[in-house]
Design a protein that fits this description.
With 310 residues, this protein is of the alpha/beta class. It folds into 3 domains: 117 residues, Periplasmic binding protein-like II (D-Maltodextrin-Binding Protein, domain 2); 85 residues, Periplasmic binding protein-like II (D-Maltodextrin-Binding Protein, domain 2, 3-Layer(aba) Sandwich); 76 residues, Double Stranded RNA Binding Domain (2-Layer Sandwich). It has 11 helices and 13 strands. Keywords: Porphyrin biosynthesis, Transferase.
Amino acid sequence: MTRKIIVGSRRSQLALTQTKWVISKLQVQFPEVTFEIEEIVTKGDRILDVTLSKVGGKGLFVSEVEDALLDKRIDFAVHSMKDVPSELAAGLVIGAIPKRENPLDCLIFKTATDLENLPEGAIVGTSSLRRAAQLLHIRPDLQMKPIRGNIDTRLRKLQEEDFDAIVLAVAGLKRMDWLDKLQHPYVFLDEQTCLPAVGQGALAIECRDGDTFVQEILQTLQDDETSNAVIAERTLLKALDGGCEIPIAGYATIKNNEITLRGIVSSVDGQISHQIKESGQNPHELGLKVAQKLIDLGAKEIIQGLRNNG
């Protein structure tokens, strides 16, 4: 019997590409199911002239999508995991986390070829406080300038405006097949230079709790290693009560069933940077452990100070 499933997605080119990738994988295994995409515009998509940290609130790119799930207008939604708040709306669950794409950040230059040879006082485009703080920690002379929009918009701004470099996620560039098309020098920033955002490079497929059919088909896309890494990272974020208005980074890797989690909490100017790296086998316990060690170093004071000044 044919069944139709409505899939929610943001309207951006990257979001639609990710959603179509998920559908293509499911279609192979469930040819009897018809999938239809419903495009949803979120608050984060509507407000493009203000940095995300100033818009405030959590779930800027998912709240309207979650409303559509709860209203049963859609059956599941595909998100970039880094956009998903550490606490989901009541009644919703992550149905699957597929295998992660490259989680690193990419620094794309107008004329330079690496971070070291950017000129003194170079202008770097990023609206991410996490990226800005970590780059300023290494190069405090850099000028950080907000930049919003989809990938091609930001690349056009690099070419036409006064940016010397911009920072984009490697995962988005790869999913959009942009890396081979770049006409500018670029480098991947290793995790010692710029630790990724929590969940960066991973997808979150969200559905209603109790929707057995949808949950069962989504589980065919589940990658347990990615899931455990993301659980550790998101536990860290939740324990710190972090959001896009705080320079927090967290990235977990797994080798021989052991999870290694690095966490960073920085001041906006990058001058204060608390870093912790720990290993363990339980992702939830590891996330809590790294969070507590960061708190012991003074992370809560940084976070509270930023919230009070925001």
